[in-house]
């Protein structure tokens, strides 16, 4: 490429004076060509170029790294001028940012259209109101006024559509923010030779990313280091089998075959998941230039970005020619989803309006949702019957009086009367269906989600809010959830150590135990120290993240590391011993790695000896009793080795005694072991099976790692007990450690004598008792265990899954299960549970993707907060239901009575719409945003069979409805005499849609509205709490503001509504009377709360 053109291209793209040789289209096509390479070459290529792989044409991964100006071993470095000021920005500008824009939000107008016209009831109102306007203007006897009622109905529907659309838009915006928080997770990279954690969106082309089990790959890249790396590519290719990956830097591309998986094995795609092993990759495509980004562009209808690549014209052409890539292949080939994989993509990527992936659980209706559906169906049926009754009776009566009695001829303007009756019938139907309920549910859920995020709960699925509130049991992990996950090596045992140390901080300490790195280094031989430090440094995937001015002698906390916190604590101890673990790793030749698995509870690595190529060493680390069982020898502190079987009886039990003592103090126990293999090269040993590698080991040390219980956990566990929620600990630690932590948390009684049988089980015992020979759960056997079970120790992810499965299937007592998880293998249990909590700090991306709620601080107390807010959602919706059902009962009965007796409704259609739609909207905003009270955790969870309307709620609905209907009926028939005014009980003039407005009927409407305003205060408490105006009322600005707004609007409607609302201005004495009659709802509510009428009624019925 001509230098000037390169410079011009650079300046035109980023303004950076030093352009990169490759463009995003080149790298995108490189990945696509590797993934789709068929080994036959292009039809145009008949020379050697056609036989070369795409990566080889660039000089392999090392040549690619040179073109991207990055060092594979150190990542982006200052020495390579890669992370100098402005270079990261230049990379982002040149290659793009690692961000795929979500689908544009739905417009407000489209949302309004959906609310107004796709809802059957609202659509009926629009049609009837439109016809009413047309008839009112064309054939009505009073065309200047009769169009107003229809116009008011249209205005009401428009405002409700606008409010609903704004609410939906706010919810969509909120979940896009939550989705961004969830998606922009931390990624481990290497920059300037040091490990570093950055956000996913900050990853740039040229970054070296460290990958571990459970990670979701953040961008497209080339593997540069792989250790037993297995990737799930089903989201991109539809293939269910894991794909093994290997390093492209380890071998020459020229050795790859063309018709196998060799080439695909070096490419990692964004969005795929690391299921086994670990490794590193070089990022080559980010954001919309990645295969995932291209796919999303197609799915959303935006087309591929190849057009953008072609638009670069000559720059792209010359760039490709410089690297031996034909100019006739300028297109950017992308992988498109197959039919098999499309269902997997659609819930995760197309539904961007929601916070995250939609799982099978989300499609299931929650108990509350099903109850609301049944209630809406019932009220709809009742509303249809009442609406038809009102329309038929009023029409029949009008027809008889007009044509049979008065002998009037038919006139076109008489249609207004029938239309008015039909509009009133439709209005009754609108009232009968609680249209404000969906808005209340949406507001309650959105408010709770927002508040839960402030309390470190990131809700991925809306239904999880309500589900968490009714949880009856929590299956919780120990590490990081009940404990702080700030691990530190507290005890190191080497046989034959300092036996003078017997006490520390009031705890008995095993003989031969060291309390610090210094004491161990001083007492142990150089061989023991070297083997100890090498075994930890090499057999680990974690990294310590230190300040630039760190001191090697400074104690380092595991919280400053990336990766497994147990490994971070061990690396910190090695550093405290004065050993640079990175230097040890850099000089080690690793031949084979056995990654950690929850089933084996250990990990091993095979390292070649630096002195003899026919000698190698196996380092093993894992659960103390598991690794110890594989040992035949034990390392003495002086460097000598003893045969375990040859030791006397007192010494034989030294190791197991140490494990028990460490575990009884709540320490996690780790055993380090090694084995020297002579006469075999590391290559030969790497082919051995796992059992042959991990046998005849030498026990080097037993380590006790301290992980303190979070100070707030005991109180949170006690709160769960009061709330009727059983907490069960599921941990991989041994039984003594688990029991010690469980007692500190309050899960188990502090008095061992009070423990019931089967309160504590280990994984093998659990499996032996509840699984059959095929590994299937035997529910009858499980039901004998679970009521007493509180701690499941030495458990595997499969044990957690079977525990959740058994609790969900039990018929003894209905259970609603919440479970926590952080590992990739926890994903099945997280999906199986009614609500899954993933760890936000130490959890893998796979676990987060399978969860419903992410604990941003990994704290058990946050689960209690989720339960509290979930119960508040249920209660908030119940409060609104109590309010609206009272309105529905009074409005429907009053309209029906008026239509039958008076041939008119005391409350007009527009007035009913105001009370039912506008006031209900404000009420939903006020009642659905109430803060949860501490008393929510003083009651048991609601069972699924719990009626939506409790007996106490029915008592208040019936009491208030009877009172309001009675008073309004008396006002309708005797109000004119009470106030000394002209009666409003007049028949509409022939040809007019409704009778004229009057003070009489205005008083009826005003009193009705004020009754609802004061009853709204009553509905703040649905459990018969005496004080409804506690301090939480005055701190709820939304409630106060919404209530005052309703008061202001009611005054404006009555005083200035005129013919639009069929109102006449009232005198101040009439206002006081209306407010006083409405305020009677408060003492009535107090009376109803004080009298347990619901108990008398139902007890009498039962008797």
From TrEMBL:
GO terms for cellular component: endomembrane system; plasma membrane. Residues 186-299 form the P-type ATPase A domain. The keyword ATP-binding applies. It comes from Globisporangium ultimum (strain ATCC 200006 / CBS 805.95 / DAOM BR144). It is a multi-pass membrane protein. Residues 58-132 form the Cation-transporting P-type ATPase N-terminal domain. Keywords: ATP-binding, Copper, Copper transport, Ion transport, Magnesium, Membrane, Metal-binding, Nucleotide-binding, Translocase, Transmembrane, Transmembrane helix, Transport. One of its GO terms (molecular function) is ATP binding. SUPFAM superfamilies: Calcium ATPase, transduction domain A, Calcium ATPase, transmembrane domain M, HAD-like, Metal cation-transporting ATPase, ATP-binding domain N. Its main location: membrane. This is P-type Cu(+) transporter. Residues 905-1088 form the Cation-transporting P-type ATPase C-terminal domain. It comes from the Eukaryota. The chain crosses the membrane at residues 120-141, 147-166, 375-398, 418-446, 880-902, 908-929, 961-981, 1001-1017, 1038-1056, 1068-1091. The keyword Transmembrane helix applies. It is found in: Endomembrane system. NCBIfam families: ATPase_P-type. Its EC number is 7.2.2.8. InterPro entries: ATPase_P-typ_cation-transptr_C, ATPase_P-typ_cation-transptr_N, ATPase_P-typ_cyto_dom_N, ATPase_P-typ_P_site, ATPase_P-typ_TM_dom_sf, ATPase_P-typ_transduc_dom_A_sf, ATPase_P-type_domA, HAD-like_sf. Pfam families: Cation_ATPase, Cation_ATPase_C, Cation_ATPase_N, E1-E2_ATPase, Hydrolase_3.
């Amino acid at each position: 490429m001509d230098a000037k053109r390169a410079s011009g291209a650079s300046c035109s793209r980023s303004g950076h004076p030093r352009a990169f040789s490759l463009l995003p289209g080149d790298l995108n096509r490189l990945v696509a060509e590797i993934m789709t390479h068929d080994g036959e070459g292009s039809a145009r290529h008949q020379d050697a170029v056609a036989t070369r792989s795409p990566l080889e044409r660039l000089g392999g991964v090392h040549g690619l790294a040179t073109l991207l100006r990055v060092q594979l071993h150190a990542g982006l470095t200052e020495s390579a001028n890669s992370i100098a000021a402005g270079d990261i920005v230049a990379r982002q500008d040149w290659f793009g940012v690692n961000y795929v824009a979500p689908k544009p939000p739905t417009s407000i107008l489209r949302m309004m259209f959906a609310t107004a016209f796709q809802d059957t009831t609202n659509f009926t109102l629009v049609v009837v109101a439109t016809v009413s306007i047309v008839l009112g203007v064309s054939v009505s006897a009073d065309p200047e006024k009769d169009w107003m009622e229809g116009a008011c109905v249209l205005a009401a529907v428009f405002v409700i559509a606008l409010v609903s659309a704004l609410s939906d838009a706010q919810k969509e915006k909120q979940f896009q923010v939550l989705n961004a928080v969830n998606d922009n997770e931390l990624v481990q990279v290497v920059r300037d030779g040091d490990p570093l954690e950055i956000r996913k969106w900050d990853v740039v082309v040229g970054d070296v990313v460290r990958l571990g089990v459970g990670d979701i790959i953040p961008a497209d890249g080339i593997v540069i280091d792989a250790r037993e790396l297995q990737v799930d590519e089903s989201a991109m290719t539809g293939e269910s089998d894991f794909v093994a990956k290997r390093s492209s830097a380890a071998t020459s591309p020229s050795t790859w075959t063309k018709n196998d998986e060799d080439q695909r094995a070096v490419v990692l795609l964004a969005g795929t998941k690391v299921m086994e092993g670990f490794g590193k990759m070089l990022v080559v495509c980010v954001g919309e230039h990645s295969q995932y980004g291209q796919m999303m562009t197609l799915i959303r209808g935006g087309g591929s970005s190849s057009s953008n690549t072609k638009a670069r014209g000559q720059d792209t052409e010359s760039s490709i020619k410089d690297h031996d890539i034909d100019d006739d292949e300028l297109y950017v080939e992308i992988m498109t989803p197959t039919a098999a994989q499309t269902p997997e993509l659609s819930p995760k990527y197309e539904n961007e309006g929601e916070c995250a992936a939609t799982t099978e659980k989300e499609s299931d209706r929650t108990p509350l949702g099903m109850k609301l559906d049944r209630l809406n169906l019932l009220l709809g049926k009742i509303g249809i019957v009442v609406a038809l009754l009102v329309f038929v009776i009023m029409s029949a009566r009008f027809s008889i009086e007009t044509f049979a009695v008065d002998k009037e001829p038919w006139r076109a303007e008489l249609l207004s009367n029938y239309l008015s009756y039909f509009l009133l019938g439709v209005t009754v139907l609108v009232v009968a269906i609680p249209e404000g309920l969906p808005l209340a549910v949406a507001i309650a859920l959105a408010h709770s989600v927002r508040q839960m995020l402030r309390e470190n709960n990131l809700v991925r699925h809306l239904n999880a809010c309500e589900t968490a509130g009714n949880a009856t049991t929590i299956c919780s992990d120990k590490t990081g959830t009940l404990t702080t996950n700030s691990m530190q090596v507290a005890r190191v045992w080497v046989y034959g150590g300092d036996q003078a140390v017997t006490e520390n901080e009031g705890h008995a300490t095993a003989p031969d135990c060291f309390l610090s790195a210094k004491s161990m280094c001083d007492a142990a031989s150089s061989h023991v120290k070297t083997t100890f430090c090498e075994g930890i440094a090499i057999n680990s995937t974690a990294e310590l993240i230190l300040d630039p001015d760190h001191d090697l002698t400074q104690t380092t906390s595991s919280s400053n590391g990336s990766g497994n916190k147990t490994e971070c604590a061990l690396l910190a101890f090695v550093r405290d011993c004065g050993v640079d673990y990175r230097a040890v790793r850099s000089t080690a030749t690793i031949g084979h790695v056995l990654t950690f698995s929850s089933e084996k509870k250990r990990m091993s690595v095979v390292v070649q000896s630096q002195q003899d190529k026919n000698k190698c060493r196996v380092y093993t680390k894992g659960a103390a009793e598991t690794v110890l069982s594989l040992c035949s020898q034990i390392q003495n502190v002086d460097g000598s080795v003893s045969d375990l079987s040859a030791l006397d009886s007192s010494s034989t039990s030294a190791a197991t005694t140490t494990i028990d003592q460490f575990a009884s103090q709540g320490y996690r126990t780790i055993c380090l072991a090694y084995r020297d293999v002579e006469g075999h090269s590391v290559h030969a040993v790497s082919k051995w099976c796992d059992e042959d590698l991990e046998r005849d080991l030498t026990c080097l040390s037993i380590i006790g790692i301290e992980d303190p219980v979070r100070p707030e956990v005991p109180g949170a566990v006690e709160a769960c007990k009061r709330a009727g929620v059983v907490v069960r600990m599921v941990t991989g630690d041994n039984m003594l450690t688990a029991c010690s932590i469980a007692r500190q948390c309050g899960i188990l009684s502090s008095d061992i004598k009070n423990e019931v049988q089967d309160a504590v089980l280990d994984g093998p015992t659990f499996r032996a008792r509840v699984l059959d020979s095929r590994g299937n759960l035997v529910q009858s056997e499980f039901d004998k265990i679970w009521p007493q079970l509180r701690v499941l120790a030495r458990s595997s992810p499969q044990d957690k899954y079977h525990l959740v499965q058994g609790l969900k299937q039990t018929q003894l007592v209905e259970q609603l299960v919440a479970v926590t998880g952080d590992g990739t293998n926890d994903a099945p249990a997280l999906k199986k549970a009614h609500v899954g909590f993933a760890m936000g700090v130490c959890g893998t991306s796979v676990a987060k993707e399978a969860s419903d709620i992410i604990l941003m601080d990994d704290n058990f107390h946050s689960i209690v907060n989720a339960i509290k807010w979930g119960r508040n959602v249920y209660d908030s919706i119940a409060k609104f239901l109590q309010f609206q059902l009272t309105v529905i009962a009074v409005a429907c009965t009053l309209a029906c009575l008026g239509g039958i007796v008076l041939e008119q409704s005391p409350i007009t259609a527009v007035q009913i719409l105001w009370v039912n739609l506008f006031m209900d909207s404000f009420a939903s905003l006020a009642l659905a945003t109430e803060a949860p009270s501490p008393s929510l955790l003083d009651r048991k969870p609601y069972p699924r069979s719990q009626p939506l309307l409790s007996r106490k709620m029915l008592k208040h609905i019936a009491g208030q409805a009877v009172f309001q209907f009675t008073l309004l009926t008396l006002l309708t028939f005797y109000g004119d005499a009470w106030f000394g005014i002209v009666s409003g009980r007049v028949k509409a003039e022939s040809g007019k849609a409704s009778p004229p407005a009057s003070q009489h009927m205005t008083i009826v409407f005003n009193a009705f509205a004020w009754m609802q305003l004061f009853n709204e205060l009553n509905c703040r408490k649905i459990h018969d709490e005496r004080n409804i105006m506690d301090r939480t009322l005055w701190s709820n600005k939304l409630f106060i503001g919404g209530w005052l707004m309703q008061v202001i609007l009611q005054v404006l409607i009555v005083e200035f509504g005129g013919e639009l609302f069929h109102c006449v201005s009232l005198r101040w004495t009439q206002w006081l009377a209306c407010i006083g009659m409405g305020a009677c709802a408060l003492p009535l509510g107090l009376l109803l709360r004080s009298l347990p009428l619901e108990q008398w009624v139902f007890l009498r019925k039962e008797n």
